[in-house]
Structures are given as C-alpha cells and as structure tokens.
Design brief:
The protein has 16 helices and twelve strands. Helix 3 (41-62) packs across helix 6 (121-136). With 373 residues, the chain is an alpha/beta fold. The chain is globular. It has two domains: 2-17 and 142-371, Rossmann fold (3-Layer(aba) Sandwich); 24-136, no CATH class. A six-stranded parallel β-sheet has the order 5-4-1-10-11-12.
Length: 373
Amino acid sequence: MRTYIIGAGFSHAVANAPLMWQLWDYIKVAYEKEKCREGSSNRVELFEKLNDFINKIELLAKARFNQEDQKKIYGGVRENLEYLLTLLDIHHEYSAHFKFDEQKAEVCPYPVIPFPYIGKIEYLKNAISTYLYIVFQDLKENEILNKFTSLVKENDSFINFNYDLLLEKGLWDKKLWSPLGGYIGINSFEHDSDLNDLDNAGRISKTYIYKMHGSLMFFSHGLKPDNIKIKLDNYEKWDFFFKEFHDLLSRAPKKPSGKVSRKISKGYLGTYHPHWILPSFVKPFDSKIFYSIWRAAFDLVRNTEELHIIGYSFRPEDTNGQLLLLNLSENSKVILVDPNESLKNRIENIIGKSVSKYYKSIIDYICEQQKSR
C-alpha cells in the first residue's frame, strides 16, 4: 500500500501556490483586486481590520524596547500566519492569559492580544478564511501536475494538508478520483442529485484523499460541525469547480438571484466560512468528522508500506503532524521530496530510522519514478 503526505510545497510546485511565508503577499494582491470591485466594501474592511490587528500586536511586542531599537525590529507576523492563528485560537478556544502576581491587581487575567480585539477573534478568523478561499480557488495548474498524477495507481491514498483542489483536479482528469467516495469521512453532498449523477456516470473514486484541514469543497449550513457536505459550486465564479461537471450533473451551477443579482453577477462579494481547520498549531477540532479523518489517517500511516512525503515541512511546532509520523511501522519505506535537505534529518529524528530516498525537487522525483515503472 502506498500513501502520500501532501503539503504546501506540492501545490507550490504544480501551480505556484503560496508557501506559508508567501501567503500574505497573495492575500494582499487579492485585497487590491477587491478594492477595485464595485460592492466589495465588506471584503476590503475584512482585510484592513486584520491588517490593523497585526500592526497592533507587533507594536505591543516592540514596546519593551527603546524607540531607536524598535525601528530596527521587523515583526514578521505576516510571514507566519500559523503563529497568528495559534495566538487567536488559544484566546478563543482555550483562554490563555497572563496573570498579575501583585496583590489587588485590578485586571486578572490579562489577555496577550490587545483588549479591543478580544470580542472580535471570530471576525478576524473569518477574514483569514475568506481571503484564503479567494486565493486558493484561483490557482492554475502546470504540466508538473499532469506528470505527477500519471504516476498514481488505483487505491493510492493521500493525506492532504492543503485546502486547494489541485491534487483532486489532476486525479479527476485521470479518472482516478471523484468527489463520490474520494473524500475520507465526507460522503454527503449539498445537492443529493450530484451524488446520483456522479454514480450514474460511473465516476466513483479509485483513490482516497484525507483532507486534514478541510477542502474548498467542504461546507456546512450554519457551520454545523457534524453536518459537513461536499459542495461542487465555486461561488467566486458562479460556476462549478471542474468544467466537466457541466456534462455530468443534471443541474446548472448555482447563480445569483433576486434584486441583488445585477451587483453580484460577476462573482460573490461576501465572506466565506468553509468548514476548515485553520493552520493553527493547537488544532481546535470542533467536529467529530475531523476527528474521524485524523484517526483514519493515523491508521493509514500505521499500515502503509511506502510513505511519500511531498512538500510538507513538519515544523517543530507541528506536534500533530509529528504524531502522525510516529505511527509509521518499522518496515515502512519513507521517500522525501523537499528542497530543504535539513528536513531529512528532522524526519529521521522523528521516525527513528533513515529516509529511504530523498529528492530535492518534484521534477527529480517524477523522473526517477518514471524510470522505475
């Protein structure tokens, strides 16, 4: 059995998708486009309030230094959104605070983040999820994706930490993956007819994807945590995610209706609340479905014969990812693809044995795999 772990480095290679440290630049580009769209004031405000919040926490962090030193300090929060989301989650989910030691302290506990934002944490997280959706739904794959998916076999499984649909689209084009049976843990569709249409067309998945943080296709009415369904419509374009759905589905893609249709006919202008686990190191699970996905992924790693890790860094703070690796059996082979060679040592320290093969690029990996077929 062969299993892949897919991270941001994979999407970067096959579609120039942003790595984590590049993500803010992509979000800023999306914000500049929103400023030019009529009726998009809500999204513009989302970005500006999020940007203002980052400025405030960086200013507070610098306040301990004198003014001359402050000028030399760069906060770096925008290049480390995982840290930002962790900071939000520990206040929102776990209420982490500093406490005063002095007697008669008037404020106890004292939050790490600025007071004005304590009641706006969910708003800030919605701002991030909205812009992540805008960025990831607009990626364009290159030829590398086609070459990679040509190597995939039926019954291969993918532990995918990315929200985007690049892997899904590449496997769909090879008739190896389908939303029907292709997402471990998620079997229901927003429209029941979609399931029937895919079934009637024989488009049942032959490979399996464990979406550890969620997918652009995941949604739930009212964010009900245990009612996540598969959505095939991309509201950003008022079209299906895959063009082939036009021929396979008995319905048309969802379109705007009513009095506001003239304003939004060129695309949705509101916020997005996809049912995701945002990339925070504390991973606040709010759904039995995500628990089941992660449990199934642990079992998968435990039983796999080959584990191919492509573009996932297993940062030291990422304890959940490291626990996933610890389930690997002694007899399993590990193939690593990443430009950062120091990752090889990190993974070997986690699993307690040597990586079987290491490739600096996905191109090198594809070439070698093609030779051995």
